[in-house]
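Treating backbone geometry as a discrete language has practical consequences that deserve illustration. Part of our work consisted of pairing the sequence of a single chain with a tokenised description of its backbone. What the numbers capture is local backbone geometry rather than side-chain detail. For completeness, the protein is quoted in full, as a sequence line and a line of structure tokens:
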Amino acid sequence: MIDKITYIETANTYPYQNLAVEEYLLLHCDKEECILYLWQNRNTVVIGRNQNAWKECLVSKLEEENGYPVRRLSGGGAVYHDLGNLNFTFLVRKENYNVDKQLHVILEAVKKLGIHAEKSGRNDILIDGHKFSGNAFYEQGDCCYHHGTLMVHVNLGELSRYLTVSKDKFQSKGVDSVRARVANLTEYAPDATVELLKQKLLEAFEEVYGLKAKILKVEDLDAQEIEKRTERFASWDWIFGKKLDFQYELSNRFPWGQVTLQMKVKNGIVEDLNVYSDSMKPDLIADLSCYLRGIRYEKNAICEELKQYSSEDEDEEQMMKDIADWILSIDL
């Protein structure tokens, strides 16, 4: 049971350091503690753990305009951050992980701005059918976090400047469609500001958990550890991963997300591969890469290997079955 809540915000807008702080807090959260971390990124495109940066973002254009391509730890799709957006992260141990309660803090905070919002599925928060907050999730051992965006006064025009959209989802989820489906909080509460929202989030955090929050500062954290983690998040290897001289690329969109397999085959064996996805299950995508490496490039062999996958998570087992059924249905 949570008996301590901690609130921390940062004025820093350098995205790699913000992700480093987030990971640090994840790994240093006490057993019965819940941490709320608020942060902002300047001119940043953030991609999910398993996505291909080159296909999700106009990397050269972003960098030419002093922007930042960033890869986060959690799964999901690419999003644009500017200083009109406020990011939140709830960090807890697994036994206290409660997405509904955490989202209730967000709903209560915007209610204090005079706005009625509601959850949609597991990932979004809407106002009158318009999305102003997208959420993603990550676990590492016993440590968990749930983070998301809060669009206060984001420049929606920048979405089409940096983000790219795959052909598979262009018609239903193209950039114009995305812009039509999202909204800023200022459209419903013209006086809303990022600073005011921070204040309301702290109030709601204390009310929902029934505790007084301890205020923590970034300066209280281990600077050397933060710097080390910042360097990793800013590294080329982390952001872009290895480039593969592949011969075969297979791609399909499932109800739960896109999957793209790039495979290098030698003497009929999958010698190496990259797996990209905007699925909310980043660990499963990593497992998929391990399962396929070193087996015959033949659909029955691939499917037989995928059938060996087992998980306590029924959604993950269904996802792997979906992938196997897809492979079986195509010509390699």
Notes: The chain has 13 helices and 14 strands. The chain has a mean pLDDT of 91. The CA atoms of residues 109 and 197 lie 7 Å apart. Residues 194-209 form the longest helix (16 residues).
